[in-house]
Specification:
alpha+beta, Beta-clip-like, three-stranded antiparallel sheet, 3 helices, binds zinc ion
Length: 168
């Protein structure tokens, strides 16, 4: 059975393009709210052909594959799938919702205009694609910044101890 074409049936609840734009982010492209988005709103559908496990086995994996259940995977690599531009965050403001072999990206917090929309890609994807390069999300960058500050403070304490020892 060939992969289905892009399924175009839209969900009336999905806010779609009018509430976000794709533009430059820290990590390349990202998706940013252009209007306030309320918690629990469906922002955009994750679109792409639906693949069976057998079809997945027969082609090279790409990072936009999204497993909807144990039998089906959406290949979201197509450019018309704007949801593919949503970046990962370890402290996300959205979450994918899977229902009837379709995926919607749903707000899990109130999102302000200008905020980057993010969701947690999950442990497997994180380990395979994000960990090797270092996670660039807000939470991980803040953690690295505080670790560096901590290391600098520890060095300063060490230096002061050495200075005091030398002065004796
Ligand atoms: Zn992170």
């Amino acid at each position: 059975m060939p992969a289905k074409k892009l399924r175009s049936k839209t969900n009336p609840k999905v806010l779609g393009k009018r509430v976000f734009r794709v533009s430059r982010s820290r990590t390349g492209l990202g998706v940013f709210a252009t209007k306030p988005i309320k918690k629990n709103a469906y922002i955009v559908e994750y679109l792409g052909p639906l693949l069976t496990n057998a079809q997945c086995d027969a082609r090279p994996e790409n990072r936009y594959w999204f497993e909807v259940n144990s039998r089906w995977t959406i290949d979201g690599a197509t450019r018309s799938n704007l949801a593919r531009y949503i970046n990962h965050s370890c402290r996300p403001n959205a979450d994918p919702m899977i229902r009837d072999r379709r995926i919607w990206i749903k707000a899990i917090k109130n999102i302000e205009a200008g905020d980057e929309i993010t969701y947690d890609y999950g442990k497997d994807h994180w380990n395979a694609y994000i960990k090797p390069k270092g996670c660039l999300c807000v939470k991980c960058r803040a953690k690295r910044t505080s670790e560096r500050a901590e290391a600098r403070a520890a060095n300063a304490r060490k230096r002061k101890r050495a200075e005091r020892a030398a002065a004796r």
